[in-house]
Every structure is written in C-alpha cells, then in structure tokens.
Amino acid sequence: MKYKLETIPVWDAFKEDCECPFCKLQAKAENRYLKYYLGNSAMNPETRVELNKTGFCPEHFSKLLTERSPQHLGLITHTHLQDWMADREKRFPGGGREADPAAAEPKKGLFGKKRSAVQRYKNHCDERNDACLICDRIARTIQRYSFTTCYLWKRDEEGFREFMKGTKGFCIPHETSLLLMAEEILKSKEQILFFQDVKDLQMQNFQRLEEEINWFTQKFKAENNSKPWGTSEDAHYRAIQKLSGRMTAH
Predict the structure, then answer these.
(1) For the chain, which residues make up each domain, given as ranges?
(2) Beta bridge partners of 115
(3) Which are the contacts of 213, defined by CB distance < 8 A and separation ≥ 6?
(4) Each residue's pLDDT tens digit, 59-109
(5) Cβ contacts of residue 153 below 8 Å, gap of 6+?
(6) I need a surface site. Which of 65, 99, 221, 243 has the fewest CB within 10 A?
(7) Greatest CA span in the chain, whole angstroms?
C-alpha cells in the first residue's frame, strides 16, 4: 500500500514534551474530522451516502453533540436513522428477510455452534454500532504518520534516530501500530534495528513513568506531605495515557 509522507506534523509532534506524539496527532486529527462532518461537506451526496450507511460509534456521536452544531448533526442523524429503520425492517427476527424459512434456518458459527435469528440480528446491530467514519479516518491518518516516522528513521533525516531516542516514547496502542508499519515497509535488517530502538526507548520511559507514579502514591502518606511532587503530580494521567492511548485534560 502507498502512503503519503507528512513530515512536518510528525516532526512537530515529536518535538512536544508528551508521553506519545501519536496521541497528540490523533487528537488533532479527531478534532478536524469532527468539524468536517458537521460542516458543509456533510451536504455532499457521496459523503451523505457514507454517513447514512456507516454513521459513527457511540463515542464520536457524543463528541459530535459537544461540538454544538445541532442543525448539521440533526440532518445527518435523521437520514442515518432512516437507513437504520430500513435495515431493521429487513433483518428483525420473525419479519422481513428473516421470515424466509431459508434465512431463518439457524446458521453455524464458531466451533459449529448454531446462531439463532436473534443472535444474528444482535451481531449485525453490534457491527453497525461499532462502525464509525471518524474512527476509520483516524486509523488511516495514524497509518500515514506511522509510515512517515518509519521513513524518517530509515533515512535518518535531520538526525531523527537520535532525536527519537530523546523522546518519552509511545503509548501501547500507537507503539503496536508503529511496529506493524515497520514490519510492512522496512527490510529485515532495518526491522531488527528499529525494533531494538523502540524497545529500548519504551523500556526507559516505562521505568521512568513507573517511578513517577510510585512517588505519586507515596505522596499521600503523612510523612511525605511536605516533600516536593517533582514530576509526579500528574503521573496517574500520563500512566493511563501510556496504557490506553487516551489523553485526558487535566
């Protein structure tokens, strides 16, 4: 697969003092896409077809609500609801397509277990609820940024390898995305070196963070009340980000 290079945003993110540059990039991308789908683009016929069919996950529907653009959100939600209604009419157990004896016949699932019409309906609804245009676009964006990171490391442009070693590393979800990209585009010998660089960087920063959050917990003891926090006062926020890939305002 071909990916687009985006060196400027990647460099800018790596220069920030943060636990994961990809989390910063993802937050900015998410904000762009929230505004995109509530803007005039939502009136584009092709975009509306995508919106009607796919929609957004529960998390991004909630975030779209906080953007305070009720008219646009109402319009896209209305037609998405209509698509859902037509889909339900076809798939609801005991009616529509499920009324067909052939369709109603229980189908075998994993390990040969038969799935009822209700279970198939539930699975379909779960898949639709999990589908999300914003999640899909964010995932593709992170792929491009991961590709750019591997490219900068491979070429060692402007001393990128050494610069990366001085950062605070990556959260676990974005670390795995980066490793997958490296596996896809780097040669075998390059992969070995890249994986070692990432492993060393992550180990160093996980140890740092473990010490910080340990001191954070010790600070609640009476004997440590007057001692300085150092860099540990928000360690719980940063540790959760490191584990989950989610930044929380604090």
Answers:
(1) 92-131, 135-221+229-244
(2) 107
(3) 232, 235, 236, 239
(4) 999 999 999 889 889 988 999 999 999 988 888 888 655 545 445 455 555
(5) 160, 161, 164, 194, 197
(6) 221
(7) 75
